Automatic annotation (TrEMBL):
It comes from Marinomonas profundi. The keyword Metal-binding does not apply. GO terms for molecular function: nucleotidyltransferase activity. Signal peptide: none annotated. It holds the Pfam family Peptidase_C93. This is Sulfate adenylyltransferase. Transmembrane segments: none annotated.
Amino acid sequence: MLCIPHWWLYADVSDKYRTLAKQAGSTYGSDAEKRILAWRQLIEESKALPIVEQLAQVNNFFNQMDFVDDVDLWGKEDYWATPIEFLGMRAGDCEDFTIAKYFTLRELGVPDEKLRLVYVKALSLDQHHMVLAYYHKPTSVPVLLDNLDKELKPASKRNDLLPIYSFNAENLWLTKEKGRGVLVGGSSRLSLWTDLNNRLNTITN
């Protein structure tokens, strides 16, 4: 087996995130440091890839994590974890998978208007769920990144999902039949989203 030095594996990771990775290692264990460094290396290596490959790389990377409910993981009914918390625990619920994919694609330069976090009902499971939607064009059918069905598919092929509302960094939409939905205001109306962004800013700034 080829032995590659730790520093060489993550040579492109910035000092800021090396420090954050070490802090996560102290909090969650040494493997957490490796996961966060691998995440940052993924971002560096994916910047020049075509968007389809970026979507696949990000989707596959985070889908390696385990699904665990918030109550069992955080002792709360609903908690939206930062990507660092998600990778630190190596586990989370559907919101955590989706949030981590969203922020990673934003760091890769994908415009916010092409992404939406979509709250849906998973009909086969009879429970609420969240996925990430990527719109190539404003009028196109989005591609969904999901931790249940791990294959990238257009929304038109996901009849098992019933959209309820969607949002990104700026806006919040309620779904009206088929399509992109009706704009109902800013995403700051979602308290969990605001709390998440405040914590993320505290960690990374």
